[in-house]
Write a structure and sequence with these properties.
heterodimer; A: mainly beta; six-stranded mixed beta sheet; 53% strand; globular; B: mainly beta; seven-stranded mixed beta sheet
């Protein structure tokens, strides 16, 4: 069975500092990997995803994540955060051979401090 | 595109009452998901529809919960009778084909409080 672990429930960081949000997964089969962001009082929205090809994927707002198969990780990074990045971030995984089902992590609350 | 639309955004009800949550998926999407989000359990998939047919309802907590999708543009999640432990944020999401690589588009959610 698949599982997703986000070790950090909360990450406080000062504005313009770098940040890394960690995500590890467990699966016996090949997977697709996703990061979703949830701003206060809103639904989740896709930030970026890894399907195949280059293991480094980027979002339009400066986040990037790297798929590391040997370490079964998909950590999210940003070199310089803004106040507006304050949100909850969810890592999710789905089986490449399966359909529809995402397994979500428990989320990491990023708090950017002025 | 208006995105996924959910109503109501907030619902406060008393224990024992019937609650109906509504969802309009993105036009052209053939897959619809209902999720529940709580602090204790995180984000849980309740039910998945494909082409208006329920495919997987294994996440529905118990018989008090039911979901329907009478057509491609509308779905409901009903709780009858409601209990305080049902208090949560309920999200509806849709995707183009329901495939493992498809992006799921979430609505803004319905915050349910059962007193």
């Amino acid at each position: 069975a698949q599982s997703v672990t986000q070790l950090d429930s909360q990450v406080p960081v000062f504005e313009e500092a770098p940040v890394e949000l960690r995500c590890n997964y467990s699966s016996s089969v090949s997977v697709y990997l996703f990061w979703y962001v949830q701003y206060p009082n809103q639904g989740l929205q896709l930030l970026l995803k890894y399907l195949s090809g280059s293991t480094l994927v980027e979002s339009i707002n400066g986040f990037e994540a790297e798929f590391n198969k040997s370490q079964t990780s998909f950590h999210l990074r940003k070199p310089s955060v803004h106040i507006s990045d304050t949100a909850e971030y969810f890592c999710a995984v789905s089986e490449t051979s399966g359909t529809y089902k995402y397994i979500f992590g428990t989320g990491t609350r990023l708090k950017v401090l002025a | 595109d208006a995105g996924v639309i959910q109503s109501p955004r907030h619902e406060v009800t008393e224990m024992g009452q019937e609650v109906t949550l509504r969802c309009k998926p993105i036009s052209g999407h053939n897959s619809l998901f209902w999720y529940r989000q709580t602090m204790m359990r995180g984000l849980e998939l309740l039910i998945y529809f494909n082409n208006n047919v329920p495919i997987d309802d294994s996440g529905m907590p118990e018989d008090r919960f039911s979901a329907k999708m009478p057509n491609a543009s509308f779905s409901t999640l009903k709780i009858q009778p409601s209990e305080p432990r049902d208090s949560a944020v309920y999200f509806c999401a849709s995707s183009l084909m329901g495939g493992a690589r498809d992006t799921q588009y979430f609505g803004p959610g319905t915050r349910l409080t059962v007193l």
